[in-house]
Every structure is written in C-alpha cells, then in structure tokens.
Amino acid sequence: MVLAKSKNSVGLGNSLMNDRFGKNKGADMRRGTHNAEAIQRTDMDGQTYLTNGKKEASWVKMRSVTEQGALDEFLSTADLAGTDFTAEKMNNVKIIHRDQKNPYLLSSAEERTLSKKHKENKSRLTVPRRPKWDEKTTPQELDRLEKASILDWRRGLAELQETSDLLMTPFERNLEVWRQLWRVIERSDLVVQIVDARNPLLFRSEDLEKYVKEVDPRKNNLLLVNKADMMTIEQRKAWADYFVEAGINFRYFSAELAKEINESRVLDEDDEDEDEEEEEQDNLAKEAKKIDLQDAQEEDGKWVDEESVSSDDEPLSEEEERTRILTTEELEELFLEHAPEIDTGPGQPPRKTQIGLVGYPNVGKSSTINALIGAKKVSVSATPGKTKHFQTIHLSDAVILCDCPGLVFPNFSTTKAELVCSGVLPVDQLREFTGPAGLVAQRIPHSFLEAVYGMKINIRPAEEGGSGVPTAQEVLGAYATARGFHTTGASNPDESRAARYILKDYVKGKLLFCHPPPREPPIDLKHFNRELYDQSHLPEKRRTHLAVASAASVTGSEDPSLMDDVDLPVRPIEGKKTSYMDNKFFGPNGSNAGHLQMPFQHVYSEQGQAKQLTGRKQKAMLALEKGVDPAELRLSGKKHFKANKRRGKGKARDDYD
Ligand SMILES: Nc1nc2c(ncn2[C@@H]2O[C@H](COP(=O)(O)OP(=O)(O)OP(=O)(O)O)[C@@H](O)[C@H]2O)c(=O)[nH]1
C-alpha cells in the first residue's frame, strides 16, 4: 500500500525512526511490517513505554503515562486504535513533539496574551467520556468503544495543541487509568478534586465537574484546596472571593496540619498518662483533685485567655467560615452532607456515602486520606474495591472513600519552567534548568534567598544593565559557590546541581510562592506574596541574616563590618553539612519542627480556630511567637498547662468525639 503523505500531518519523520531503531528497523516500520508490540521489544535506548499489548502484565497497563515521546505517542495511539502505524498515518493523526515549544520564560505581555488564549480555549480541555453502554453491550464491544472514545479525545487534544500553538500539561494518556476514574465517578456521591493551594487552577479540571453532573445530576463536586497552610489569610480570602464568584464549591484543607493535630492528640494522651503515673508516685493524686480549676485559670490567665479568645462559642463570620482550614472532623461532616437520599428498603441500613478522591500526583491525596484515617484513632481497613485498581476505604459506618489513582488532567500551561516549579514535571529529569531557576529567582525576593541559604547573590548593578532581580545564573552561582559545588574539569560553579536543590525546595514549599487568582487588572505578584517573606515570621537568627542581606543589597554595599555580624558562610559547605544548614532553617526534611518556624503555621492560629492546636503544639507555637523556649515553658508551667489541658481535652471530646 502506498502511504499518502498528508501535508497537515506532522507525523513521524524517517530520521526519527532511523535514530531510534536503526536504519533497517525504521525501514521495516515504514513498510508497516512491525506491529506496536514488536517495536517495543526492539527499543534500543533502554526506554520503556506503554502499549496495551496483550502480553503485558496488568501493572504495566496501570502505569500512569503522562510524558510520551513523539514515537511513544504515535505507537500507543496506533495501538489504541487497534491498528498499526500505517492505518494511523492514513487517519491523519498529528504527532506532537515534546520539545517543540519554547521551554524558557515569557515576558509579562506574553503571559497576558497567553492567558487570554487559555481562557478562549478552556472549554476544549475535556476529560474523556465513558461510552454509553447497557446490559446488552458485550465486554468486547465495550472495550472497543472505550478505546475509540479515548482515541477521539486524544486526537482532539493533539489538534488543540497543534492548531492553537498551546503548551499543555503532560496529561494522562493511559486508558486503564481513565477507566478507574470512570468507575470512581459512577459510584461516588461526591467527587472531591484535591488541588495544591499554591496554584489551584493549574490542578483543577473544570470539565471533570461537568462530567460528574452528566453522569448523574444528583452527584456533587468539591474542590478541596489542600496545603492551605502555605497561604496567608489574605491569600485565602482572595482565592475564596474568586471561587465564590466563579460558583466553585470549595473548602480549604491542610493534610499537614491535620496530621500534626492527630499527632499532638496522641502526644497529649501519652503526656497525660505519664503525668498521672508521676503524680501517683509522688502521692500527688489527692492534691491534684483539690486544684480548683478557677484558681488555675486566674493563676495562668494568659493561657486561658488565649484559649478563650478562640472559643468555639463565638460564631464565625461568613468570611471566616470561607477562609478557614477545615479539620478532619469537619471534612468528614462535609462528606456526610452529601449522603444520598436513597431508600434501601424497609429495615435496611442506609447506603454509605461514597466519596471519590481525585487529583494530580503530589497534591497531597495520600496525606489527606492518611489524615482522615489518622483522626479515627482506630485502624481503618483498606479493602480492595470491586475493581482491581482503585481502593475503597471504609472511613466510618457512614462514609466510604474511593481513592482514584493519581491523574493528570489536560490543562494549559504557560511554560515548561512553570510545570517544573509546580511539581508536574520531575526536577530530577531536567535538562534545561535555567527556565525554572529563573522563575524562582523572579518570584522569591533575593534577600530572602540570601537569608535562607546564607549566601550572597551578586546581582548585576543597574548601571551595567541589571534589573535589580537576579538571573537564574546569579542565584545558582551564589548557591553553588556557597555550597562548594563545582563542575569537574573546569571547576566552575555547578549550576545544574545547585538548580536541583533549589528547585526541590521550591516544589516542597520551603521557598514559597502562591499564585494569585486571575483578575483584571492582574494582581501584583510581589504584593500578593509579600507577607510570606516578612522577616517577623522568621526565627531570630535568620532575621539578622535577612536584615543584613537586604541592607547590603539596597545600598549595594558589601561592607565587611556589616557582613561580619552574621555568620554567612565564609567557607563552602558541602555534603551532609549542606542539608544540616538548610534544616536549621527549615527543620529536618521540612518536618513539623521546621514548619513551626514558618509563617504559615503562625497564621493558621490567627484564623479563629486555634482551639484545634491543643496540647504541645499550641504551646510550642505560642512560645515561639513569644520568643520563649517551648521546653522552658513546659517545665515551669506544667501543672497549669495540665489543668488547662484537662479543660481542653474535655472540650476536645465534645468537639471531636
Ligand atoms: N505543607 C504541606 N505539605 C503537604 C500537605 N499535604 C501534603 N503535603 C506534602 O506534599 C507532598 C505530596 O504529598 P502526598 O500525600 O504524597 O501526595 P499525593 O497526591 O498522594 O502524591 P502521589 O502519591 O504522588 O499521588 C508530600 O511531601 C507531603 O508532605 C499540606 O497540607 N501542607
């Protein structure tokens, strides 16, 4: 058969095939004498890619496929179509080359143009629909229909990228993964999309919400904005206004804080047990009984005041209600509000509410589920669902969670750099790092970077054409020099290694930046994030760094006497010491200890629900805010805390159990 060469088809070039498979196999393929499976076996560069070949194990089928090379894309599309590449080519499918877009940064004017284009094309960002079927449809027929549906959908998206010249997130392409989503939607009463608070819209699929309603209008959607501990209250307000105006059903959550609360409750209980043992030994039990709670309240007025300020007696204003971060208990209550009104028959227990949890990888889906389970204080059985792949978790007598595999929905993105910074593209596979590092350099104030990493960034002065904002190279060079990272041979600063560290810190939220909601005119990014870098949020020692670093950068001074006051590293710090140094600032591996020193935790206590942080955590937090060592406070005020704690615990029981 002679292949018709379509002018519109980008297709696979002969050179690409030869590059990848060598001349002979490339020629075989052009003749159509290799099927997709045979090609997979002869892949020379060690890469694996997905085809839904008959002999593949089921786990291979379930692998998430988001990044496909041109050839991989071509083959799996051909395989979905149940055909070989010859027929595929005749079907005139366009093949998208991953690297065809500019991976670097855009000017703000370009950003604006692009965002307008995104808006215009938003409705074309669909999720694939499960084809209609009924009891007469055979499994084979359904399989064929599902494959055809996925193929159509992929074709549409490929066309959208090609004709509109738009960069998209590397969305999920594996039919098996979409099948799981279809099943989760079909059985769920409420579909919860979990998104990352730093850039909620990047992780939201509007069309998924539409699809949920198409499947059954009685089903509901919820946008759960997780990692809300990373936002300031002002940021939460701004986004809440946007969500309300856009008619989006949303709530804020923080799996991280929920985990801390769960842990602090366990610690409190341990603490209480320990204390009670001690008291028994010292024959203080009788004494303890005599303690008049009222006296304790007077003696320890400050702490009691702190608690009473956040008493749950005061109703929250509408705005507070919208911006607050839910506890796990409140989240579960919210789930229950969506209980189906289905009569299961006389004498039959009501059907459990089924909650489908979907979201991109890394948005905190597992952490959310763990926090919900952890709050139960009993082990919750995780039993495999009817299908092999998604899990159903019986959270309580009334709620079942359906945990869908992590899914990357199609969405627009401005640059690849943005995708790296958002954690969608993995840092470790980066080849071009100046784009994403440039975004970090633009977004995080350089004085903050200097304080965090104990380094000095040499920014090109204005008279030499500098803009006042460091370039990626300037930040990376400073970091590499401070850490002693050098390239072998030429012994230049190892910018690529520096980029990996800095970008991972950014993705984890150690270097924090939150995107504002889209508005006209656009919200100023610096203003929106200014509180995050307010030095009053920083531990004492780092405040000095920041003050000196800012003074030096404002005056352009490198006055050694100024720099001597602080221990900015004079020698490069390498290896383990590097992480030790960063941990001193952030807390070990971004752990809770470090979190306490970050602004967001502090802000959390201001949202009128400090009552959640009972016990050690709250004390530690208050102590830190007051600049006192928490350990000292605990020792000196043990009894009083305990008296309060008892009250607190009683309240907690009322609140939570
Ligand atoms: N600060 C903060 N970090 C969070 C929160 N929830 C999750 N994380 C962090 O985000 C990262 C990803 O969390 P996971 O729960 O593994 O995310 P996931 O969506 O299950 O990711 P996959 O397992 O890849 O699908 C981890 O480093 C978590 O510690 C949160 O509420 N606040």
Describe the structure concisely.
One of its GO terms (cellular component) is cytosol. The protein has helices at residues 14-31, 36-41, 58-62, 70-80, 85-90, 108-121, 139-164, 175-187, 206-215, 233-245, 255-281, 285-290, 293-299, 301-309, 318-323, 328-336, 365-374, 416-421, 434-443, 446-453, 472-483, 495-508, 525-529, 540-555, 560-564, 575-586, 592-595, 599-604, 615-625, 630-636, 638-656, and strands at 190-196, 220-226, 250-253, 325-326, 353-359, 382-384, 391-394, 399-403.
Give a description of the structure.
The structure is a single chain. This protein is mainly alpha-helical and 657 residues long. It has a domain at 416-595. Helix content is 50%, strand content 6%. An 8-stranded mixed sheet has the order 4-3-2-1-5-8-7-6, sandwiched between helices. Helix 19 crosses helix 21 (472-483), helix 20 crosses helix 24 (540-555) and helix 21 packs across helix 22 (495-508). The longest helix has 27 residues, at 255-281. The protein is globular. Guanosine-5'-triphosphate binds at residues 226-227, 229-230, 254-256, 359, 361-367, 406, 509.
Task: Give descriptors for this structure.
binds guanosine-5'-triphosphate, eight-stranded mixed sheet, 31 helices, globular, disordered C terminus, 657 residues, mainly alpha, disordered N terminus
Radius of gyration, in angstroms, nearest whole number = 28 Å
- Report mean pLDDT, rounded to a whole number: 69
Number of strands: 8
Side by side, the strands of the main sheet go: 4-3-2-1-5-8-7-6
Strand % is: 5-15%
